[in-house]
Amino acid sequence: MPSISHAGAVHVEYNHFPVGELWEPGCERKDDRPNFRTDEAVIVVPGRIIVRSRLQEDFASVALALSDRRDQAPGPEWALIASVTYRPAYKGRMAACDTTNGPAGSADEALEAFGCLVLPGDAAISLEPSRVYDVQMRARGRSYAPGRFNEVFSAT
């Protein structure tokens, strides 16, 4: 069974949100700028993994999980959007963040993943700084994004 963090609500603004390591005192700051002009669903820079949404602005519930099984999806409706490698840049404390305010706030309700109810709270995990991780980014609802996008902008 994967070790699952709590769920965090993320405000998706400008089409992206980061899952990033919290900078630790004593570590050299990494400030690499991601290339947002790419068509990739996930962008990796030292200290951050940026997920690109198919909506301009939205709220998303996020759960972070550590698993030894690469092929294991969190549930039947979860689609793999990207597989990337990540090497911790600091001490490995990684959290889901909104685009402007740092770590994500608590989700409004629980999220089901890997057969477990992930209770609201900060979406965060601890990574071993000496390891390289194979990161599987999975999402639900991406196929409905164009319709939701049109609903938002046709109402304005």
Q: What does the model show?
A:
The chain is mainly β. 6% of the residues lie in helices and 42% in strands. The chain is built from one helix and twelve strands, in the order ββββββββββββα. The protein has one helix at residues 145-154, and strands at residues 3-13, 16-21, 42-45, 48-52, 57-66, 79-86, 93-96, 105-106, 111-113, 116-118, 124-126, 133-139. Strands 3-4-2-7-11 form a five-stranded antiparallel beta sheet, with no helix packed on it. A hairpin with a 2-residue loop joins strand 9 (111-113) and strand 10 (116-118). The longest helix has 10 residues, at 145-154. The chain is globular and about 50 Å long. The termini are far apart. The mean pLDDT is 84.
Tell me the layout of helices and strands:
Layout lengths: L2 E11 L2 E6 L20 E4 L2 E5 L4 E10 L12 E8 L6 E4 L8 E2 L4 E3 L2 E3 L5 E3 L6 E7 L5 H10 L2
Antiparallel strand pairs: 1-5, 1-8, 2-4, 2-7, 3-4, 6-12, 7-11, 9-10
Short description:
With 156 residues, this protein is mainly beta.
Separation, N- and C-terminal Cα atoms:
45 Å
Cα-atom radius of gyration? 15 Å
Strand content: 35-45%
Sheet having the most strands: 5 strands, antiparallel
Spans of at least 5 consecutive residues with low confidence: none
Provide the spatial order of strands within the biggest beta sheet: 3-4-2-7-11
Q: What is the SS-derived class? A: mainly beta
Shape: globular
Order of helices and strands: EEEEEEEEEEEEH
* Helix fraction by DSSP (H/I, runs of at least 4): under 10%
Mean pLDDT: 84
Q: How many strand units? A: 12
| Count of alpha/pi helices | 1
